[in-house]
Amino acid sequence: MKILVINGPNLNLLGLREPDIYGRRNYAALQDYIRESAADAGTEVEIFQSNHEGEIVDAIQEAFGVFDGIVINPAAYTHTSVAILDALKAVALPAVEVHLSDVSKRESFRQISFAGMACIATYMGLGFDGYRRAIFHLRDFCNGEVKDA
Ligand code: CA2
Questions:
Q1: Can you give the pTM of this predicted structure?
Q2: Domain parsing of the chain, residue ranges
């Protein structure tokens, strides 16, 4: 089973600013954590990060027929991008949304998630662990062990 992990804008800056919200570990540490989690789950993983909405749309489209599922943290595009929502719906791959912070307790402009409307589950406020849970959730879903929400 192959999972594509997509990270949106500015997540490459992890560890450099706002440690109270996003933690002190950097993006390289997040990539290591994701690879380790995938190995523990017995899945293959590829990680993609982009600061550009269209590149994220391209990555979702290109995942069709190649990956079995998507873990996505669209970062700020979560709250603005109908294009990412449409791409997720178009490929119809099972997708799980992740946020490092608990967006439900943050500003009002973060209270809508377009991408989340095409996802079978969301993990937020768990830091890196949200990615691990998302990978295990997708694996179990693809093995028929969890039902769609
Ligand atoms: O909590 C999350 O994972 C978010 O997706 C992170 C986004 C934010 O816009 C979402 O509302 C919630 C922001 C990612 C920016 O990451 C930074 C990392 C280091 C320094 C500054 C920003």
A1: 0.97
A2: 2-142
